[in-house]
Structure formats: structure tokens, C-alpha cells
Design a protein that fits this description.
This protein has 5 helices and no strands. The protein is an all-alpha fold. The chain has one domain.
């Protein structure tokens, strides 16, 4: 007859002690923290690429809107030239410095003359790219090799600690810490053969 967990009645199992529960929680906490450190190291470069692509996309969208506005303005000028004879005559007169008979020309300085080529479409107000609060952290984690190696080393250390110091007890009797034992003494009793 084998002595497995199925043959032992639930009433005959000793209740888990508070120390055993704390060690079990510490085991899972260490593993979770190690997984988070590893995920931060492995996902930081990908997240940085994603943030840079998003910033480039936003910049391209702003340029597209500015070009669409400029195109709309030029389209209105083209329509006015084709449909409004007075507008096209005035535009031609200004472009070629033509003078109508009987018109008096007042000489002005060059910087005061009207030059249609110098007129540009009103520029869009500069929009600052919105940066996420975590962007500097991601940039540092993605580019700093020492920090990445430190995170990986800490993850390795946490895994080793969780499987050595926080693994389930090897002996069959329950862990009952004494009130005056140190933490090291309790751990040694828990895992001693």
C-alpha cells in the first residue's frame, strides 16, 4: 500500500502554520517580482520603438493637416483666377508691376511692396508632442546595459532565493517555529533533513 496524499484523510493533516503561510507567500512574491523584472527588461526596447513610432505618426499627421490647408487655399486661388476676372487682372497687375493708364504709382521701399510669392499660408500653431510619464524610464531601461543587467541579475537572485529559502519544507512534520528562535534558525529547522 502506497502512502500518497489520497490515502491520508484531510482531518489527519496538520494545519498550516502562520510561518508556513508567510514562507509560501514570500515564495510567490519573489517569483512574481522576478517575472516583472524580466518582463521590464525584455519589453522595454519594444515599448520604446512603439512610442517613437507613435510620435512620428503624430508628427506626420500634423504635417498632413498643414498640407491639406495649403492645398485648400491654393484651390480657392485657382477657382478665383478662373471665375473672377477682376481678381485675375489684379493678380496679373501685381505680379508684373503693370500700371493702368492714368494710375499714379507711389514709390515705396522693397520690404513694403506686396509680393504674392512671399505670402504663405498661415502656419499651424506648433503642437508639442505629448510624452507619456513613463517614457524617460523606458528610454533608460532600453538603452542602459548596466541597468538591464542589474534587473536580470536581481531576477535571477529572486528565483534562486525563492526556490532555496522559500520552497516547501522537506520534512514530514509541520513547521512549528519557537517564539525565541531567530528567523535563520526557523528556516534551518524548516529545511533540515
Amino acid at each position: 500500500m502506497s502512502t500518497t496524499d489520497q490515502s491520508i484523510a484531510p482531518q489527519s493533516l496538520p494545519p498550516e502554520t502562520a510561518f508556513g503561510m508567510a514562507v509560501s507567500l514570500l515564495f510567490w512574491f519573489c517569483l512574481l517580482l522576478a517575472a516583472l523584472l524580466f518582463a521590464a527588461v525584455s519589453l522595454a526596447p519594444k515599448l520604446l520603438d512603439s512610442l517613437q513610432l507613435r510620435s512620428q505618426f503624430d508628427q506626420n499627421q500634423r504635417q498632413l493637416v498643414a498640407m491639406e490647408r495649403q492645398t485648400e487655399q491654393l484651390q480657392r486661388v485657382i477657382e478665383a483666377i478662373q471665375t473672377d476676372a477682376d481678381f485675375s487682372a489684379e493678380l496679373t497687375r501685381i505680379e508684373f508691376d503693370a500700371v493702368l493708364p492714368g494710375e499714379e504709382v507711389i514709390p515705396v521701399e522693397m520690404d513694403l511692396k506686396l509680393d504674392l510669392r512671399s505670402l504663405e499660408t498661415p502656419a499651424l500653431p506648433p503642437i508639442q508632442a505629448v510624452k507619456e510619464w513613463f517614457e524617460p524610464i523606458v528610454l533608460r531601461l532600453a538603452s542602459d546595459t548596466r541597468l538591464r543587467n542589474g534587473f536580470l541579475g536581481a531576477a535571477i537572485l529572486l528565483v534562486i532565493v525563492s526556490f532555496t529559502a522559500c520552497a516547501p519544507a522537506r520534512n514530514e512534520d509541520p513547521c512549528t517555529p519557537q517564539g525565541h528562535d531567530s528567523l535563520w534558525g526557523q528556516l534551518r529547522k524548516r529545511y533540515a533533513r
